[in-house]
Amino acid sequence: MEQSISSAGDLIEENKIKIDDILKEKLENAFHKKTSNVILTELTKIAIEHSSIDLAYAAIHLPLHVRPILFDNISNFDDKIKFIINTNADTRIVIFRYMKEIDIKNIFDKMPTSEAIWVLEDMSERRFRRVLELINPKKAIEIKEQKKHDRNSAGRLMNLEFFAFNKEKTIEEASLYIHDHLRIDFTKGIYITNEKKELIGFVPARNMIVNQKSAILKQLMRPITHSVKTYSSREEVIDLFERYKLFTLPVVDEDNKILGVISHEDAIEAMEDMADETFAKIAGTTEDVSSSEPIFRRFIKRAPWLFVTLLAGLINVVISSSFQKNEGILLTFVLFFVPLITGMSGNIGIQCSTVLVRSIALGLVSKKSKWDAVTKELLTGFLTGSIFGIICTVMVIVINLFTNFNFNVSPTAIGIITGTGLIGACFTGSLLGVLSPVFFESLGIDPAISSGPIVTALNDILSMTIYFFISYGLSILLF
Predict the structure, then answer these.
(1) How many Å apart are CA 374 and CA 478, to the nearest integer?
(2) Cα angle for residues 204, 251, 169 (degrees, 5° grid)
(3) SS3 203
(4) Which residues contact 42 (CB under 8 A, 6 or more apart)?
(5) 213 in helix, strand or coil?
(6) Percent of the chain clearing pLDDT 90 (strictly above)
(7) Rounded CA gap, 91 and 54, in Å?
(8) What confidence tens digit (pLDDT) does each residue in 262-316 have?
(9) What is the pLDDT of residue 129?
């Protein structure tokens, strides 16, 4: 069953890629036509043949100045709203730049508040205030209130459009109200409140259909088992959706009055945002991995992290040169094994860090079990380093016996120094790998950053320093 689901998912993803490629090719061909009339005809045809959502993704690959032309050729107004919601920030910015204020007003008046807040954040503060002055006053107030919530909180994820009825209402009364508000999604059910407007239950959409119209809602409702506050983190929201397989999650205030609803789709989008941010942190960049940003802007977002790596490399050079002066103690050959030491210790450290970060992210590690998990990873790293240190000792001895390397040093001594140094460096890498996620988490920073270039560079410095000190000490004993 799992294999069939996976195959279906791969097929859907493959079809999405094919559609994007086909659309991209069609749009590029259209814009290379010689006359403007032919271009407009081709664009109109493309806009009719394909969904606005597919067009929104395809537009990302077009030059900025032609994206508004594609948008203008989408005839249906609702499709234009879908296009704006599903495309990227760069496309939205350039489209709004060319749009008349009345057209912007019409789009935001029809756009759901939860979507409007995300779209408006792509605008400058001045343009944002101007749009709020133009649109429906009630929606403007809702947007302002929702914007007060933290970007990564349940208050920002929630949808303000939902159905909530008093428990004494009948299905017929609720149905009449729903019929008059077709724009609000009903398929996921309705919420039930008491006389004090407190949330007390939930009625699935199916129950509204299969029961008699005269049935009272309190007789059909199910209890609310899970809810969150506006200040709850998106991590908490995602955990609830994953753990309990929820379709919707109500957001309530301190008096248990419902303020909004988070849908399963909202949770998936939040999960994708978290994944993008995590990938960026691991890669050592603040760049949006899904956007087609200009090359110089990409450089600016990557440069600070790489500058730290550059400094770490220079520190390594200083450390290496300081130990190289000890030629009388025969440490010259030690420098040949530095790439081996930093590579092995770095990889072992990243493995320990990644496993621990994943456990923390999935909620598999509690506050009580955290140090047990740290100890296990540390011992695993030490055992791995020890085993590979012994293997390295044997292999270095064998290589020295059957090659023409001539350090004027016993092959056994070289093997022991290198292998022991590797064990010490790997233990240092493991220690840094398991302690850095815990350290960053205690500071309220995403522990995924522990896999980034800053910690990797720090690992190179520490592991190489430990390796040199061990080699220095052993060389004194052996020579």
Answers:
(1) 35
(2) 45
(3) strand
(4) 26, 29, 30, 33
(5) coil
(6) 26
(7) 14
(8) 999 899 888 888 777 766 666 656 555 445 556 777 777 777 767 777 887 788 7
(9) 86
Domains and CATH numbers, the chain: 12-151 (1.25.60.10), 164-283 (3.10.580.10), 295-478 (1.10.357.20)
d(CA 377, CA 161): 47
pLDDT at 405: 59
Q: Tokens 């093997």 map to which residue?
A: 415
**Dist. CA 27–CA 44, nearest whole Å:** 11
* C-alpha to C-alpha distance for 46 and 26, rounded to whole angstroms: 8
For residues 238 and 266, give the distance between their C-alpha atoms in angstroms, rounded to a whole number.
9
Q: Which residue has the tokens 């896999």?
A: 451
| Residue with the larger pLDDT of the pair 416 and 363 | 416
Cα–Cα distance between 111 and 132 in angstroms, integer?
Answer: 13
pTM score above 0.70: no
Of 48, 119, 56, whose CA–CA distance to 87 is shortest? 56
User: Which residue type sits at 153?
Assistant: S
User: Alpha-carbon distance 404 to 338, whole Å?
Assistant: 20
Q: Which of 416, 280, 422 is nearest to 347 (CA)?
A: 422
Q: CA-CA distance, 115 to 41, in Å (whole number)?
A: 31
Name the token pair of 222. Answer: 């199910």
pLDDT digits (tens, 9 = 90+) for 398-451: 887 777 655 566 778 888 888 999 999 999 989 988 888 888 878 777 776 656
Q: Average the pLDDT over 169-179 and give the result.
A: 94
**Interval 20-53: pLDDT, tens:** 677 777 777 776 665 666 666 777 778 788 888 8
**In angstroms, rounded to a whole number, what is the distance separating the alpha carbons of residues 437 and 432?**
9
